[in-house]
Amino acid sequence: MKKFMLSLIASSAIFFNFILPTTVNAAEFISIGTGGPTGVYFVVGNSVCRMVHKEAAE
């Protein structure tokens, strides 16, 4: 009986390992520092932000 339970648990663990998804995409937060709205770095930061969001949507 003990061997049966052990083999049942082991086979269940192997079965669920293949059935359940193995990768989970975690949310990744990126902080981009930019300048004021009238500065050059604000435009650059917005462009980088658009490129990152475009790649994430695909």
TrEMBL record:
This is C4-dicarboxylate ABC transporter substrate-binding protein. Gene3D superfamilies: Periplasmic binding protein-like II. The lineage of its organism: unclassified sequences, metagenomes, ecological metagenomes.
